[in-house]
Amino acid sequence: MKKRGQAGIMLLETLIGLLIFAIGVLGLIGMQATAMKVTADSKYRAEATMYADQLINQMWADKRNNADLVANYATGGPKYDEWYDAISASGSGLPGADQAANQPTVEIDANNNVTISIYWQAPGEAGRHQYITVATVTN
């Protein structure tokens, strides 16, 4: 009689063990997805940094006065347009950079303080990300 009262206990223990294992595996999958998202965001932020540095270095190489910097490199200037075309071309590293709402901005004040804001929007995300850097370009 004792054997009949305990029938199925081992099966129940096995099912509970499988449930605990499945919950653990789901947790690992969730952590992997989060790690992939953080890695992609890090990649895009590094590329935005590279693009901003590229433009600042070009300004340094030109060594122009403030009026020339504003005319050529501020948002809408010819050097700005060349730079923007390069970073927004299909296949560039920043997704969504070719959209009008994500167009980068370059502001240059009278003291040659340059503020570059770069925006991107990762696939499947509703909001956009931004990278802002400030540099002083002197003659």
Secondary-structure topology with pairs:
Layout: H1 2-5, H2 9-62, H3 66-73, H4 78-88, E1 105-108, E2 113-120, E3 129-136
Antiparallel strand pairs: 1-2, 2-3
Structural account:
With 139 residues, the chain is an alpha+beta fold. It has one domain. The protein is built from four helices and three strands, in the order ααααβββ. It has a three-stranded antiparallel β-sheet, with helices on one face.
Notable traits:
rod-shaped; 3-stranded antiparallel β-sheet; alpha+beta; 14% strand; single chain; 55% helix; 3 strands; 139 residues
Q: In total, how many beta strands?
A: 3
What is the number of helical segments per DSSP (H or I, 4+ residues)? 4
- pLDDT averaged residue by residue: 88
Largest sheet properties: 3 strands, antiparallel
Molecular shape: rod-shaped
The separation of the N and C termini measures 98 Å
Order of the strands making up the biggest sheet: 1-2-3
Quaternary: single chain
The percentage of residues in β strands lies in: 5-15%
Structural class: alpha+beta
Rg for CA atoms: 27 Å
What is the chain-wise order of helices and strands? HHHHEEE
